[in-house]
Amino acid sequence: MIEFSHVSKVYRGVRALDDVSFTVEPGSVTGFLGPNGAGKSTALRVLVGLSRPTSGSATVYGLPYDTLGNPGTRVGVLLDAGALHPGRSGREVLALGATTLGLPGSRVGEVLDLVGLTGQEARRPVGGYSLGMRQRLGIGHALLRRPGTLVLDEPANGLDPQGIRWLRELLRHLADSGCAVLLSSHLIHEVEQVADHVVMIGRGRVLAQGPVAGLGGGRSLEETFLALTSDTDRSAA
Ligand SMILES: Nc1ncnc2c1ncn2[C@@H]1O[C@H](COP(=O)(O)OP(=O)(O)OP(=O)(O)O)[C@@H](O)[C@H]1O
């Protein structure tokens, strides 16, 4: 379970998050939707302890992420697939993660199969990967320990249609197995197809939240999103 409770974050005068509160329950996918600059990445960075909230708290399993004690064993995180070490091969990235988490080397092959990277691709340096391949590797890294909570920032970026379908089925399967999945995205249709709940954010504020079905009271998720964010997008900033 993930809980944001009245989280605000101010960067030198920029209010990136403003009193953000929502929860992500086990067994569900929560889509975190917002236009560019809405505060999605900031919220996820606060959640995993990379950024301190100015006020409020964000917790996983009832505790701040950095006090969990070996959080990698319970929480899978992918914030920036571009941050994977470019000089290491995909297999090395996963092997290092497996060793850090105390997992057997056999888990690396399982994860490569899970994310659809071939043995040949896994031997290549990550610096030469396409964005979609990096996303697959980053998702695999987040799933090494079969975490009960998964936090993904824009994981569909760079994935081809097959990859997007694969991701959707993977997240559905994980949630159906009890995982709490928080999925940040600006792809409304993607969120609509996979998420059980949606939290919409604009200019750092939660604009709406609730079950995907029924959030807009008869309007499509896209219409709801556009109506709510029309005066919060960057062009209006
Ligand atoms: N380190 C920082 N210093 C100053 N301002 C920041 C910093 N990080 C983010 N911001 C500002 O906070 C606001 C929210 O940014 P954030 O990256 O969280 O948005 P986002 O919803 O993830 O956007 P995108 O979809 O474009 O990735 C923006 O106005 C951004 O400029």
Give the termini distance in whole angstroms: 33 Å
**CATH classification class of the largest domain:** Alpha Beta
Largest sheet: 6 strands, mixed
Q: Which class do the helix and strand fractions yield?
A: alpha/beta
Structure description:
Belongs to the ABC transporter superfamily. This protein is of the alpha/beta class. It has two domains: 2-74 and 150-236, P-loop containing nucleotide triphosphate hydrolases (Rossmann fold, 3-Layer(aba) Sandwich); 86-146. It contains eight helices and nine strands. A hairpin with a 2-residue loop joins strand 1 and strand 2 (14-24). Helix 2 (90-100) crosses helix 3 (106-115) and helix 3 (106-115) crosses helix 5. The chain is globular and about 50 Å long. The protein binds adenosine-5'-triphosphate. Residues 11, 14, 16, 34, 36-42, 186 line the site of adenosine-5'-triphosphate.
Summary of the model, kept short:
The protein is an alpha/beta fold and 237 residues long. It has eight helices and nine strands.
List keywords for this structure.
single chain; 237 residues; alpha/beta; Rossmann fold; six-stranded mixed β-sheet; globular
Q: In terms of topology, how is this protein built?
A:
Elements: E1 2-11, E2 14-24, E3 28-33, H1 40-47, E4 55-60, E5 75-78, H2 90-100, H3 106-115, H4 119-123, H5 131-143, E6 149-153, H6 161-176, E7 180-185, H7 188-194, E8 197-202, E9 205-211, H8 221-229
Parallel strand pairs: 3-7, 3-8, 5-6, 6-7
Antiparallel strand pairs: 1-2, 1-4, 8-9
The structure holds adenosine-5'-triphosphate.
